[in-house]
Structure formats: C-alpha cells, structure tokens
C-alpha cells in the first residue's frame, strides 16, 4: 500500500505567510505616511522661500519708496525691515516663519539690494 500524496499547504505555512504579508504591508503604509509628511513640509518650505524672494524683488523695484512691513499668507508670516543706505542701495532684513511638525521655523534673510534706475531717471543724452 502506498501513502496518499498530499498537496497544498499546512495551516502553519498559511499563518506564517499571512504574518509576513501583514508585516510587509504595515511597512509600506508607514513609509508612505513618512513620505507624505516630508512632501508636505517641503511644499511649505518652498512656498515660504517663494514669498521671501517675491518680497525682495518687490522691494528692489520700489527701492526709494520701500518701507518696512509684515504680511501673512497661508500660515506663512513674513516681516521685513528696510534701511535706505544711499540712493542706489537698500538693506532689507526679512524674517519668514512657517509651521512644521516640530513647531514654527523662522528663516532670516539679510540682503543688500541695488536700486533699479527708473526710466524717468535715465537721461538718453548721457
């Protein structure tokens, strides 16, 4: 008499396979959550940088009429102080603050900006 050949998996093999798939799935879920948080933080940081660069460009264009101030755009606070150094340069100190998972982060920019000559200020005969 020959023994019948059994095919298929035992109960312990199925339990171990399910356990391994569960651990792998949990690892994927936690990794995707970490990537989503990092992407969100990068987006806020990039938006804060764009706001700061935009403010510096506006102040450079306004140059002689530039004044200190503050504004809040989408949870990003920007505060700047303008000092007129001479007729061709201004100094701008800008602080941009934005929320992160650890609290608010403030980045400071200290810039010397050249004043762009206005079209009315240029003399084509010179």
Mean pLDDT equals 87
Number of domains: 1
Strand order of the largest sheet: 1-2-3-4
The first-to-last residue Cα distance is 116 Å
In percent, how helical is the residue content? 40-55%
Look at the helices and sheets and give the structural class. Answer: alpha+beta
Q: What is the approximate shape?
A: rod-shaped
Assembly level: single chain
Low-confidence stretches: none
Number of helices: 1
Order of H and E elements: HEEEE
Radius of gyration: 30 Å
Q: Major beta sheet, specifics?
A: 4 strands, antiparallel
Proportion of strand residues: 25-35%
Total strands: the figure is 4
Offer a few descriptive terms.
single chain, 126 residues, alpha+beta, four-stranded antiparallel sheet, 1 helix, 4 strands, rod-shaped
In short:
With 126 residues, this protein is α+β, with helices and mostly antiparallel strands.
């Amino acid at each position: 008499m020959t023994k019948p050949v059994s095919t298929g998996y035992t109960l312990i093999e199925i339990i171990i396979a399910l356990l391994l798939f569960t651990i792998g799935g949990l690892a994927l879920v936690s990794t995707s959550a970490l990537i989503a948080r990092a992407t969100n933080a990068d987006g806020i940081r990039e938006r804060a940088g764009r706001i700061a660069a935009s403010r510096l460009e506006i102040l450079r264009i306004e140059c002689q009429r530039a004044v200190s101030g503050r504004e809040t755009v989408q949870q990003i606070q920007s505060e700047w102080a303008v000092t007129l150094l001479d007729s061709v340069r201004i100094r701008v100190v800008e602080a941009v603050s934005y929320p992160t998972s650890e609290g608010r982060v403030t980045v400071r920019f200290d810039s010397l900006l050249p004043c762009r000559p206005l079209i009315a200020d240029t003399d084509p005969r010179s």
